[in-house]
Please model this.
Amino acid sequence: ISSAQFDWHWSHLLQGHFVISSLFIDKLVLSIKENHVAVVAKTHAKKFQFPWILKHIRLNSANIKQVLVHYGANFLRLNGSLHKQWQFNWQLTIPQLDKFIPESKGQLFLQGKIRGDQLFPEFYLLLPETDLTWKDWQLKQIQAEFYLACLKNKKWYFNIKATQLKNTLFSLHPIGINFSGNLQPFSLQGSVSRFKLNRRTNINQIHSIVIPDSNIVATLRSGLEASLITNPASEEQLSVHIQLPH
Model:
């Protein structure tokens, strides 16, 4: 840390609190050895607990110009400020996804934001266009965005698009899924855009079917209740309703 400023009151320590009135970090670079992390993760994977000291720390104000965390070839970049409002931006780069997810290929570049009131932060996540592979599944030109406000209005939003999703037997293209809802009580409403489903047979023939636009609604209270309607604007539609009490 090239420059840091702390302003706290020792009397809070008698009450079990560590209050940081203001914190300024010009540049923080943290490098983590891969072999050390692997040993720690393997040994304590089932006994991990949130660091107890963080339960006693209260941070009122922070300004961070740049924080870089390196873990092998992977790195996290963070900058922003916290006063009465969260204003943080972060970027995560994973050049070799197979080190975290077995039988996968590709690289991830994630961007995110933390915004909102100090006590009620809101989280944004963006996955720019990329290609991914997991086992025999391939995702081409996948894009995604995610929003979560878990404390104040308890809402969430999820949107994902892909040019093609395929394996040796099935191929779906293009894919577009858009969901939003509440966390408590849980509800979901969204849509799946029109796509073509291809299936390859053992004699190398391809059968195709077009799945029209579909709307999905689900609620969870005393039980789960969900509805699906394909091709909502047409009389030739499929309507499904599922109710699971308790």
Remarks:
- Residues 34-44 form the longest helix (11 residues).
- The longest strand covers residues 120-134.
